[in-house]
Amino acid sequence: MFAVIGPAPGLESEAEYAYETLWNGVRVIAHLPGNGSMRLLSQTGVDVTDQYPELKALPVLLPGPQAVLDGEIITLDGEGRPSVERLQQRMSLHHPQVIGHAVEDLLVQLMLYDILYLGEPTVQLPYTSRRDLLDDLALASPCISVPAAWPAPAEQALEQTRLEGYDGVVAKRLTSPYLPGRRTRDWIKIKHLVRNRPAT
């Protein structure tokens, strides 16, 4: 499921959405068959599991039923903000030995923000129910987390992410199902203007 780029919902409809940080990273779908293994598939369907060995803790955190999770891989800079440059360096590595060394200097994190399957399909559930399921899993480790979602008003989420140096927020309609492969206004990507970013 993909977001459209647009302005924040107006005052008359902003309470119909939750607001999540816009991560400037690599979108992946995590497949956990329930046998202790995992596959990370990129947006184009490429298996990138071996490129990010530090994320193989996910099946340990979720050893139960089969699951499919949606999220984004990011790399942080020295100030704790997502860094496209550092992530691109990590994405270019493929040799296991080189990747092993890079884990120390270019550590990645997996931000999980949706759940498509948990023992049975969940895509038909509304966003609020899927978030409840995801939050109840309590997935947390140094490299794996479920980021918070803000309720309305949208301005609070926009101001907080601007101050923290993120690119913006994604507004997600509370009643929306998960629509695989579709781009819809149920998810709205709201980007900060460059001139509004804090000075570095």
UniProtKB/TrEMBL annotation:
Keywords: Ligase. It comes from the Bacteria. SUPFAM superfamilies: DNA ligase/mRNA capping enzyme, catalytic domain. Belongs to the ATP-dependent DNA ligase family. The keyword Ligase applies. One of its GO terms (biological process) is DNA recombination. This is ATP-dependent DNA ligase. Residues 101-191 form the ATP-dependent DNA ligase family profile domain. One of its GO terms (molecular function) is DNA ligase (ATP) activity. The lineage of its organism: Bacteria, Bacillati, Actinomycetota, Actinomycetes, Kitasatosporales. The keyword Secreted does not apply.
